[in-house]
Design a protein that fits this description.
The chain is α+β, with helices and mostly antiparallel strands and 207 residues long. It is built from 8 helices and 11 strands.
Length: 207
């Protein structure tokens, strides 16, 4: 429904669609939050982020066929593009700073092949504060630019992934997201997917 509407439906609308009570919807949302399947606004049952979709303004704006969605990082933006399908334009900024950039997906391929994606926070700590983790993931033009950025903002230097490689990973992770029933991947499943895309350094370890 987020993909269709561009926002999360009210819980009462979900209850009607599922022929259940609002209380049951709220219980399910809390269970999904506890499982790190989505993020709720603190003290509420209102979704804040249902990855790859952000439900408040994020660092990226994804446009596909005159529709649009927020994403909290470029990887999530690529995830939206993979899930929804079709040509996409993802507007963001280099290092989350001044320089604007548009990442284009055309005919199933990313066009900005020279961009790098830096992940400052390792996967095992993403859900310690998932909004901050996403904010620490940014695109760059060079390794030197990443080093300067990390020093300037006192953030750890983590993993660096070429954008075409990140796109293939996003397609693998989110490509069937809107077509198949959702299930939470185990740490072993996630690590297997990491290895399939060449993410083999200790940075990517979950277990």
């Amino acid at each position: 429904m987020i993909a269709e509407l561009g926002h999360a439906p009210p819980n009462a609308v979900l209850a009607d669609a599922l022929s259940c009570s609002v209380h049951e919807v709220e219980q399910s949302l809390n269970a999904l939050s506890d499982a790190h399947a989505l993020l709720l606004h603190p003290g509420t049952t209102t979704p804040w982020a249902v990855h790859p979709f952000a439900l408040s303004p994020g660092s990226c704006w994804v446009e596909i066929a005159h529709r649009g969605w927020w994403a909290n990082c470029l990887y999530c933006g690529l995830g939206i593009a993979a899930a929804v399908g079709g040509d996409a334009e993802i507007s963001t900024r280099i290092g989350g700073e001044r320089e604007q950039v548009v990442v284009q997906i055309r005919n199933g391929a990313v066009q900005e092949r020279d961009l790098l994606f830096h992940l400052s926070t390792p996967p095992r700590h993403w859900w310690d504060n998932v909004i901050h983790a996403c904010a620490s993931f940014q695109p760059f033009r060079s390794e030197e630019e990443i080093d300067r950025w990390c020093t300037r903002h006192a953030l750890p230097r983590g993993a660096v992934v070429p954008l075409p490689q990140l796109w293939e990973f996003a397609r693998d992770w989110y490509g069937a997201y809107l077509e198949e029933p959702w299930r939470k991947r185990s740490a072993q499943d996630a690590e297997q997917l990491f290895r399939r895309h060449g993410f083999t350094s200790p940075f990517w370890s979950l277990t």
